[in-house]
Amino acid sequence: MIAAPELPSEFHYPQDSDTRFSSDTDFSEGPDVSINPTKGKGGKKGKKAVGEKGKGGKGVGEAGRMNGHHQENGMENMMLFEVVKMGKSAMQSVVDDWIESYKADRDTALLDLINFFIQCSGCKGVVSGEMFRNMQNSEIIRRMTEEFDEDSGDYPLTMAGPLWKKFKGSFCEFIAVLVRQCQYSIIYDEYLMDTVISLLTGLSDSQVRAFRHTSTLAAMKLMTALVNVALNLSINMDNTQRQYETERNKMVAKRANDRLELLLQKRKELQENQDEIENMMNAIFKGVFVHRYRDAIAEIRAICIEEIGMWMKLYSDAFLNDSYLKYVGWTMHDKQGEVRLKCLTALQGLYYNRELNTRLELFTSRFKDRIVSMTLDKEYDVAVQAIKLLTLVLHSTDEVLSPEDCESVYHLVYSAHRPVAIAAGEFLFKKLFSTREPEEEGAPRRRGRQSPNANLIKTTVFFFLESELHEHAAYLVDSLWESGAELLKDWECMTSLLLDEPLPGEEALTDRQETALIEIMLCTVRQAAECHPPIGRGTGKRVMTAKEKKTQLDDRTRMTELFAVALPPLLAKYSIDAEKVTNLLQLPQFFDLEIYTTGRLEKHLEALLRQIREIVEKHTDTEVLEACSKTYHALCNEEFTIFNRVDIARSQMLDELVDKFNRLLEDFLQEGEEPDEDDAYQVLSTLKRITAFHNAHDLSQWDLFTSNFKLLNTGIENGDMPEQIVVHALQCTHYVILWHLAKVSEGSHRKEDLVSLRKQMRMFCLMCQRYLTNVNTTVKEQAFTILCDVLLIFSHQMVSGGREQLEPLVYSPDDSLQRELLSFILHHVFIDQDDDSGSTDGQQDDEAGKIEALHKRRNLLAAYCKLIIYNVVEMNTGADIFKQYMRYYNDYGDIIKETMSKTRQIDKIQCAKTLILSLQQLFNEMLSELGTGFDRSSSAFCGIKELARRFSLTFGLDQVKTRDAIAMLHKDGIEFAFKEPIRRRTHMYLERFMTFQMALQREDCWLPLISYRNSLQAGGDDDTMSVVSGYSSRGSSVRSKKAKAATPTANVAASKRKLPEGRLSIEESSSSADVSWQQQTMQTPVMMPSPHLTSTMLRGPGDVRGEPKRARDDSYMGVYTPQLHQTPIDYNRRGTGLMEEDEEPIVEDVMMSSEGRMDDLNEGMDFDTMDIDLPPSKNRRERSELKPDYFDPASIMDESVLGVSMF
């Protein structure tokens, strides 16, 4: 913020009657509005300072009467705050009642007004009469601050709900009406306004946000009301001065001296009143605005800027100068969009009035660059208003904005945010299209090339070409639609510019300009017919009004009548230009086809069909042929009478194409002859035409499957088939199968049709599978894409929805096909950008080529992921996809993440297995590359850890839903960790935690540990040895061996271990452990009690033991060592069994713990100072009842083992 000059804390009304509002304020004349100048006050009293509070008048009793309201309103004894809050009474009557009470007892009424402002701030305290008489405003505010409850943070101006939403408006209205009703008498009594302004100034400087916000709003609204009063006084003074001058200029005989004296007295009184109003406004401005326009709260700053804009607009003679404009200019740099928005709306009100432009010249030159830069504001609302403000500036004067300033707004017509684009379109229209040639009165309206819109349409074309965003014509049209719809819908002028010869002296359009004009014309037709913005700008479907629907119908009728006649000549003129023809052929899709019949336009339809047929014969471009196919599809509508005529033309053309294809194919596939390039071109061009039409039309009556399959089979056998022929043959065969399926799915079909379709589908899938190994990348990609589509269509999903009769068609890929599909993805999708040289089809290694290649690979990956999601292939095949999540996150992260989400919805358990499988694969790959002695700080291992962390985030925090999945994930991970060669390393790791006192224990409860240890050493199949079996063999040799004392070797080995400081010696520790253990053993011969649940947070050992905190080391898996809680044991809780029936494995609580996930979700926080208390499980004992954990590593681990790695 720009620092404001230092101002005194208290402001006094100056005694000089000639004081003006500011040094450069000039209260000049305004509109002629007369008021009654009579004031209800006596002689002038000595003026007081605003900071002082008047103590005159009647005393205030504690039980003094509140402001009296009409009893019929039911609010006789209601507080003023309650009346305004309810909003049921007219504000005029509320204010009139308060004025009556003020005249009766001004101290009581003023006390009610003070409490009104206090209560509007949300304060529960009440200013009593005693406080009002004996305390200064600062003391009262301090007392109210002490009684203010800021815990909730809400106060009336910020509370939610319909009642409080209306409160702000009622609050502001009350202040405005109060000043308006008091403007002739009470506000000049040097008591009311002095007290109110002093109170609001003090509250606005409070540390309490509610006081500061409410008082600032009240003070600003009070200032606005006073500005209106000052404006009326200025007008009356000017009127009085003119009357005085008129009377004085009369002849002496006709001059009325009494009237002159009356006018002088009236002018003097008005001048005195104006001086007082000026002093009040000065006090508010310097005491409140200058401090609060840079308040820490954005809402308060916005209030100040909004109101100063009102002052400059209402009373421009006094406020519209640089002394006040500078505050708006400075605040345009505010960090909050809300405040910047208020600056722009305030300036719009000023620039809208052209009479004020001369006073804004200096401000415009100083802050123009800032306004232009705000068109790119991150807040879209601010950007929209900035563009609208520049439009007003442009409307007022065309010389202020430079060409560079205008160009910075021009490009915003292509913005994806529609309001910004619409505002930029309005600016562009005013700048480029506002200079229209005037038409002579009485002269016939010029049409076509000679219309006034001709040059404007050319200007649009020139702008479109210069912007170098040729594929965004739809965005340009949408931006200009609201401001220039009449120009854009002048299709007659557009067609005339394309068809007619240029006038003498007129420059003809170039080929590039004609292409751009046709594209713009197509976009305008689409916009008029569909009535919704282009893709990327729409905010959803909007319900059109009746007027919009009528306009849409009228536009469709007019465009059909025009283009039905003009389209055939246009196609004939540009028949060899593929780009122009492609755009022109899309026009019939928006026609009202009924007009061909009602308008007697059949001959033009015949001409259109002839032109389309000629275009099909001339062109082989896929885009042109597909446009022709779509046009036939649009015209072949059985609802209209033109259907038969169009259907006959289409059938004749297709008959010729199929006959030609079969004839060429027979010659092309003759044995013993080498096909030349001309034959291959003829076959390819005909196949392209058939494929394009087969996409939108059913060609089942022609047996295209046999010929295409023969062509594909020959390509496999010989291996020299041109790639484009194979690509289109695959696509055409795909269409044959889909149309056959559509006919079978209708319900009326024979068994032979199902058998035939099933045979064709399986043959085609086998053919595509064989083409996956083709040497040509384009052919392989086409075969893969089509194969994925066919497998998805003919999966088990096709029998859903009551289509059980299609069950014989269900086809599931075998294991070999699944492996080939996965191998294709791994070798053609997950590759580096530089390695993808084959899929770019020989394009240059430029940015556009890379983007196109990436888009193609994304489509391939999406096709395969759909097979995983719909359970066409095994879900575990997704492991090879999921493990690439981190490496190719920028290219395919969204696809892989969505696939994981969908698979989890299908089967949580299997999805968890797939995730852990992907991690296992990466770990094995790392071991094969780095060996078992890898560095844990290596990028490969860190990448696996990061991938695991990302996987964990995908489970969410709902522990109940993810419980089984997390358990399965841990189970598979543990099984993987204990496989060879990791098993032996796991035993070595656990051996380091073995201490002497553990070796001395040879009771039954150690059987699981002994069994687990033996399994690690022997590597046998006794991993799952039951604890029950250990107890059932109490008399066995194993039991007897356990009962023996520890050998001296064990003692020596244990004594060599280093004990941490402060621990017991080996003898003391072992003896005390023996005693406690024997006591418990004699009392209950059951298994060891369950351990205390410990947090999975990563903590240093010093956090628990009172030792200094250690630096966090990422090279080891941190071990949390909690203190032992020796809770009493309830021996009556257990029976003779090993575990109670309702007791679940304690590991479930650890699996359900969300602390590890919270660690990931809150990275960057200091977890060393964060304690999370896990809630107890509902289906087992409270954690405080769990028995002490003798397996707790805190009692046996020293500092030397804390850095040991598990792997």
Automatic annotation (TrEMBL):
Compositional bias ranges of the Basic and acidic residues kind: 13-23
Organism, as annotated: Esox lucius
Superkingdom field: Eukaryota
A Pfam family assignment: STAG
Region of interest (Disordered), residue spans: 1-71, 1030-1058
Subcellular location: Nucleus; Chromosome; Chromosome, Centromere
Protein name (database record): Cohesin subunit SA
Record key words, sorted: Cell cycle, Cell division, Chromosome, Chromosome partition, Coiled coil, Nucleus
Keyword hit for Transit peptide: no
GO CC terms: chromatin; chromosome, centromeric region; cohesin complex; nucleus
Keyword Cell division: yes
